[in-house]
Amino acid sequence: MKEFDVVVIGAGPGGYVPAIRAAQLGKKVAIVERKKIGGTCLNVGCIPSKALLRHSEMVEEIQKANSWGIKTGELSIDFPKLMKRKDQVVQTLTGGVQHLLKRNNITFFQGEALISDALVVSIGDGKIKGKDILLATGSTPFIPPIKGLDKINYHTTDSFFDLKELPKSMTIIGGGVISIELAFAMAPLGTKVTIIEVAPDILLTEDLDARKIIKKQLQKKNIQTIIKAKIQEVQKGKVILADQEISFDTLLVATGRKPNIEVTKELNLKMDASNKFVAVNDDYETSKKHVYAVGDLVGGYQLAHAASAEGLIAVHAMNGDHPQPLDQTKIPRCVYTHPEIASFGLNEEQAKNAGYDVKITTSNLAGNAKAIAMGETEGFIKIISDHQYEEILGAVIVGANATELIGEILAMKHSEGTMNELASMVHAHPAISEAIGENANALLKQAIHM
Ligand code: FAD
Q: Which of 152, 173, 341, 441 is the most exposed place for a label (fewest CB within 10 A)?
């Protein structure tokens, strides 16, 4: 039986990133993957969705350009070609990961990993052993028990990115981040999108003011959003609600994800309080010594960069490095709508509950020179800080490039800078980031343009 220092199960961002770090630390590493290198994120998640969103963003840019006087003629969509480009984006990135695994001398096993004995991993007829095991098996779409769903064809995000034709109409069950992003990706191409959400609102994980802007945009794009829906049944071509029927030619079920825990069964690992995720300590070690678990398999943010950050902590712990626990308030969360939403840290309520003397400053993009020049004035920057030390507790940005801009405020917090440092920084002009400086200055009652 081949022996390794570290055996990683799952080659998504929670698996391949720590596998490479472990190799950099001098470990002999194996990684096992049952489907494709890159996991959900690269193959059917973060990356293909962003490639599709870029297409719809370009369509809207062209429409905007036309209204400004740049004439392009009639716009037409070659959907198969767009999907081919999406495939190329995915292949470039998964090929890159494959190359990195090779370059770091990581042994790759293709197949379903089973753990028969504590540190022995079976792949088909073969067995390998690890001094430490890292479980990064991720998650799969959760399918709610809706009457009739098992009798019709529907997509989950696992199959959606293989669409061959542009749907005329698409109904999405679920109103979370993934659903809203895919609605934004499809509607500008010409698909009539309807979102059905059973909860009292869409995007419940996001800031209320951010949600308002996105809802306005959904309306602008003719995307019908039904909240508090009472789904009775699904039939071929229609979703039957208590008070209406919604017809579709494509149905996407995007109602959350469930962790892939099968591999943990034999190990009898302790589960967390929700009884859904594998329980881990600050080092991401499970209830079994030398067995670690990260990413969508454990609680916390179900995000690619969170999975990778957790995996790095796990391998450094295996290496005896006593890594710092992951600070959940420093994990950025992004929604790639147009405009984008990006946030981190505590919201007002959480900050108050934590005992802070909370100050909230909001700067609007309506008066920002770059935003005006770009025609992207919809949005704001909101910073939640503590009055006593002007400590940055959290932030929300809605606007063009919000997912990049959030890094500035986060970098300041990460390096223990306060609103004072943010206020005294010189920002380029014109830049949307000027609104960050203005926001911090507003706290000190020294904003120039607000
Ligand atoms: P995964 O990426 O799911 O990887 C787990 C891997 O383990 C899979 O490849 C699986 O095949 C393999 N595996 C499972 N069991 C076994 C076994 N027994 N043996 C061998 N292999 C096994 N996150 C972001 O941060 N930003 C985004 O923009 C974003 N967009 C998303 C869009 C969509 C449509 C979806 C669905 C998700 C998105 N996410 C995004 C979430 C992100 O994809 C996940 O949080 C991330 O992939 C989790 O990483 P992971 O390594 O834990 O799991």
A: 152
